[in-house]
Specification:
Length: 361
């Protein structure tokens, strides 16, 4: 049973892990805190980027001799393998810690087994402390590792009456500049940005990370290091015009057609196959930016892991496009309720984050 000091340290470790989130990919997002033998925090750290030390090692370095006989609290099971850096289990044993408390087990074949290795060496190891919080901060990596497909976030901007476009198809802009800047940061920290061909034909978006945008968007660009996410247009028959902005030279683009990816049961692009193809080329996270039809297919296929809706205090009324198509509930008894995870006011808009739970039959 974890002590109050260990739970508090885990809460801090989750906060620390979040600092690395924009830069750790393809590695996990991990934070760690060292408690001395009297359970006082004496060192902390987080994994910053590939090739840099793991969180436990940073925290142990900060703690120095004070780690001896103490406890290391870490958001992910310490790794037992040698990658670009040595195994964390060996660093923990060398530091002489008595106990290791971690939140989530490592699901990968090559790095798992850290807790067993520690126990075999006489270190007390406890799992599962604040697991939900630690899952949240490392969702991209854990989803990819467990499911062999990228972590998918569906992001959209809607009016208070749930519309993402007016009757004529126009949708720029529903939310204000601060919300759009926030959404832009999601793009900057994703491996891939995806839309359906319907959005390309209606909006002609460029789908790049821009540092200076006439719309007032000014992302901090954290972690992009000049890198642009892969742009994917889901386009069964290749209707994307070669002159579309998404086809410019600013970033790599993949027009994913049925011929290349295969067809799903409805004859359109097979989304599960598409995600597998992306995973195979190293994509761990997809920001799905539209539109209602593609989002409907992802949601109903159970392939969306998070929904981030920016909601503006504005109304479009009759004729406007609703955020989701093809996933309609016939009656209120069939409503699809999601698990609300976070609500933030951004400028004059709200950002809601929710997790789809399996829709009951
Ligand atoms: N406010 C916002 O956040 C936001 C964001 C995006 C878009 N929008 C608005 O949404 C409107 C466009 O809506 P939309 O629904 O046409 O766009 P979409 O979802 O981006 O594109 C839909 C198209 O994707 C293709 N597709 C290929 N495989 C598919 C699959 N498995 N499932 C579903 N679609 C598949 C289909 O065309 P093929 O069969 O030809 O392949 C389908 O018609 C525009 O008015 C735009 O302004 C708003």
């Amino acid at each position: 049973m974890a002590s109050a000091a260990e739970v508090a340290a885990m809460r801090r470790a989750v906060e620390l892990a979040a600092r690395g989130a924009p830069t750790t990919r393809p590695n996990p997002t991990v934070g760690a805190v060292v408690l001395d033998a009297k359970e006082r925090p004496v060192g902390e750290g987080w994994h910053e980027r590939p090739g840099r030390p793991h969180a436990e090692v940073v925290a142990l370095d900060a703690a120095g001799d004070r780690a001896r006989g103490g406890t290391v609290v870490v958001t992910l099971e310490p790794c037992a393998h040698t990658g670009r850096t040595g195994p964390c289990t060996e660093a923990l044993l060398a530091a002489g810690v008595r106990r290791v408390v971690y939140a989530v087990a490592d699901p990968t074949a090559e790095a798992a087994g850290g807790a067993d290795r520690l126990r075999a060496a006489g270190v007390d190891a406890e799992a599962g402390v604040l697991a939900d919080e630690a899952e949240w901060v490392n969702a991209r990596w854990l989803t990819a590792a467990r499911l062999g497909r990228p972590y998918v976030v569906w992001k959209y901007a809607a009016t208070l009456d749930g519309k993402v476009a007016a009757a004529d198809g126009s949708s720029r802009w529903i939310t204000g500049a601060p919300a759009r800047a926030d959404a832009h940061e999601l793009r900057a920290t994703s491996d891939c940005v995806m839309v359906g061909v319907g959005t390309v034909l209606a909006d002609d978006p460029q789908l790049t990370v821009r540092t200076d945008d006439a719309s007032g968007v000014s992302p901090n660009g954290a972690g992009t290091a000049g890198r642009q996410p892969l742009r994917v247009v889901v386009d069964s028959t290749g209707r994307t015009p070669p002159t579309a902005r998404v086809c410019d030279a600013a970033a790599e683009t993949w027009i994913a057609t049925v011929v290349e990816v295969g067809a799903g049961p409805d004859g359109r692009v097979d989304l599960a196959a598409l995600l597998r193809r992306l995973y195979d080329r190293g994509v761990q996270s997809v920001l799905l930016e539209g539109g209602p039809r593609l989002a409907g297919s992802f949601l109903t296929a159970g392939l969306a892991d998070r929904v981030i809706g920016y909601v503006a205090p504005a109304l479009l009324g009759d004729g406007g496009r609703s955020a989701l198509a093809g996933a309609g509930a016939g009656s209120i008894g069939d409503v699809w309720r999601l698990e609300l995870e976070d609500v933030v006011r951004i400028g004059n808009d709200l950002r809601l984050t929710a997790r789809p739970v399996t829709k009951e039959a």
